[in-house]
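Journal club side-thread
Mid-discussion, someone asked how the predicted structure for our own chain would compare to the paper's figures. Pasting it here so we can look after the session.
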Amino acid sequence: MPMRFEYQGRTWRVAADPVRWYERIEWWREFKRYPRENAPRIDLEVWRVQARLGRGGELVTFDLIRDPDRAAWLLRPYAPPRAA
């Protein structure tokens, strides 16, 4: 579970319980052919976190994607759903 992360040269601290889910990538568009023994991952682990700078900073929502193949986290811009 992410507790803090770097973004734009600053350390953001997770300030609320994150939400985790998995997303399936569109593997049929991404990969034309792959040997069975080296098949890529088709599910992504996503964590939606609310984080802040310092103790009194404003809460900002981020989606963090865990990439176990590179032992890294990727940041995806969060866009709240639009009202209908």
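Post-session note: The chain has a mean pLDDT of 81.
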